[in-house]
């Protein structure tokens, strides 16, 4: 069980790109506990750490699988405004500030 938890955690770190520090914050375990657990040198209750990590991995993998892809709508006015600001600032070697309500599509457009 311990070896499986170590392997699963190491694989998750590679797959998700999360750091041990991020996982520490999300699990409530210290970074040293996670590091020592992965190395097999943790002197504390390894079974409890393995249970905590297993629960964390179950939830985290479900989150990774349920993240929906955002839709990009090039015909919307907000999208056109953001694209214009990017193109204008790029052509004129200037900076642009794009503001608007949350959920208006600014970040999605910039990612596109």
Count of individual domains: 2
Number of strands: 0
CATH topology of the largest domain: 434 Repressor (Amino-terminal Domain)
CATH architecture of the largest domain: Orthogonal Bundle
Give your account of this protein's structure.
This protein has 112 residues and is mainly alpha-helical. It folds into two domains: 2-66, 434 Repressor (Amino-terminal Domain), CATH 1.10.260.40; 77-111, no CATH class. The chain contains six helices and no strands. The chain has helices spanning 2-16, 20-27, 31-39, 46-66, 77-91, 106-111. α1 runs parallel beside α4. The longest helix is centred in the middle third of the chain and has 21 residues, at 46-66. The radius of gyration is 21 Å and the shape is elongated. The model has no long low-confidence stretch (mean pLDDT 89).
Topology at a glance:
Elements: H1 2-16, H2 20-27, H3 31-39, H4 46-66, H5 77-91, H6 106-111
């Amino acid at each position: 069980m311990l070896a499986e938890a170590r392997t699963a955690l190491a694989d998750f770190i590679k797959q998700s790109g999360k750091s041990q520090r991020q996982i520490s914050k999300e699990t409530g375990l210290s970074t040293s506990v996670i590091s020592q657990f992965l190395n097999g040198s943790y002197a504390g209750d390894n079974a409890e750490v393995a249970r905590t990590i297993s629960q964390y991995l179950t939830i985290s993998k479900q989150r990774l699988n349920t993240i929906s892809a955002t839709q990009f709508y090039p015909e919307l006015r907000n999208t056109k405004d953001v694209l214009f600001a990017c193109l204008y600032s790029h052509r004129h070697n200037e900076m642009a500030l794009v503001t608007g309500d949350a959920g208006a599509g600014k970040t999605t457009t910039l990612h596109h």
